[in-house]
């Protein structure tokens, strides 16, 4: 097992030069069911975003297809002009046509158009971290990454990230251009991306695990090892699940999302939990069992 970092609430140097606190905030839950349309009162969403930053979050993770466009617009409305220490990450490469229809779109001209649209919605001249939301199997990887590298050379993006890929694909991508981060599903119940995590550790890449709470599965059950560990720390199941990620590897930077101010405060409380070696051994022994899908 990887040794626990001494300060799980510490910072990570994204791209080797942008310091971010390792527990960030994801914006998908600010949109409606299926990440389609707005969710509830817009003022509540703006308040949650501002509260996240007030509580020390320095990494905001969003995507152009959350809404679509809704989440990026909320980020800009709530947080622009951006603080110097705030890193905004967004994603492109998937087009939405309904709450259940997702279309991978990785042609260079499509990626450029999507990035330009994100720049406008986010009210910025340069996106700190622009992530390819999915590799398009119909387009050579070199062409997709070449489009992003071109945008980086033009100063429109600062760092390139990738979402949902294999370890072999990540190694191939690294041979083509500089990569700063990866987003794959990874949590206590799903560690199928362990090989990708090892590549990230070897190259100093941030690993932003999506569904860090297993789409709610880690917060709903009782009477498990997770409960026992949580009780020992006076914490919730969700806090321990997030703390496990922060202890599991120094490159893991979870960005759990929520539309609730109370849930946000609960999630961020995971930064204060110090899991023991025994805690980690017990949690590591939990059998990964559930898998969820997300685009």
CATH architecture, by name, is Alpha-Beta Barrel
Poorly predicted residue ranges: 1-6
What order do the helices and strands follow? EEEHEHEEEHEHEHEHEHHHHH
Spatial order of the strands forming the largest sheet:
3-4-5-8-9-10-11
List the helices and strands and how they pair.
Blueprint: E1 11-14, E2 18-21, E3 25-26, H1 42-54, E4 59-61, H2 70-79, E5 87-92, E6 94-98, E7 101-104, H3 108-122, E8 127-132, H4 141-153, E9 157-163, H5 167-176, E10 181-183, H6 194-203, E11 206-207, H7 217-220, H8 225-233, H9 237-248, H10 261-268, H11 277-284
Parallel strand pairs: 3-4, 4-5, 5-8, 8-9, 9-10, 10-11
Antiparallel strand pairs: 1-2, 6-7
Helix pairs in contact: 1-2, 3-4, 5-6, 8-9
Characterise this structure.
- The relative contact order is 0.15.
- The protein is built from eleven helices and eleven strands.
- The longest helix is centred in the middle third of the chain and has 15 residues.
- The strands form three sheets. Strands 3-4-5-8-9-10-11 form a seven-stranded parallel β-sheet, with helices on one face.
- Helix 1 crosses helix 2 and helix 5 runs parallel beside helix 6.
- Helices cover 38% and strands 16% of the residues.
- It is globular.
- The chain has a single domain, classed as Alpha-Beta Barrel (TIM Barrel), CATH 3.20.20.
- The chain is α/β, with parallel strands linked by helices and 295 residues long.
């Amino acid at each position: 097992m990887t040794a626990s970092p001494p300060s799980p609430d510490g910072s990570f140097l994204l791209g080797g030069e942008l310091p971010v606190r390792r527990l960030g905030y994801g914006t998908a839950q600010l949109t409606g069911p299926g990440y389609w349309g707005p969710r509830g009162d817009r003022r509540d969403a703006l308040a949650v975003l501002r509260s996240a930053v007030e509580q020390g979050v320095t990494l905001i993770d969003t995507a152009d297809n959350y809404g679509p466009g809704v989440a990026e617009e909320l980020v800009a409305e709530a947080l622009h002009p951006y603080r110097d220490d705030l890193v905004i990450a967004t994603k492109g490469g998937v087009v939405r046509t309904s709450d259940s229809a997702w279309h991978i779109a990785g042609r260079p001209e499509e990626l450029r158009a999507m990035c330009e649209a994100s720049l406008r919605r986010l009210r910025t001249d340069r996106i700190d971290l622009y992530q390819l939301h999915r590799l398009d199997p119909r387009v050579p990887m070199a062409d997709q990454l070449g489009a992003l590298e071109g945008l980086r050379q033009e100063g429109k993006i600062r760092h390139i990230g990738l979402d949902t890929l294999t370890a072999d694909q990540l190694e191939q991508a690294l041979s083509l251009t500089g990569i700063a981060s990866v987003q794959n599903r990874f949590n206590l119940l799903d560690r199928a991306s362990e090989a990708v995590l090892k590549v990230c550790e070897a190259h100093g890449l941030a690993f932003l695990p999506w569904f860090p709470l297993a789409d709610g599965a880690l917060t709903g059950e009782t009477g498990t090892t997770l409960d026992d560990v949580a009780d020992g720390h006076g914490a919730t199941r969700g806090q321990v699940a997030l703390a496990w990620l922060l202890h599991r590897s120094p490159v893991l930077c979870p960005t759990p999302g929520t539309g609730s101010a109370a849930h946000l405060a609960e999630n961020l409380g995971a930064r204060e939990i110090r899991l023991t070696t025994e805690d980690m051994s017990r949690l590591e022994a939990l059998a990964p069992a559930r898998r969820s899908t997300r685009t």
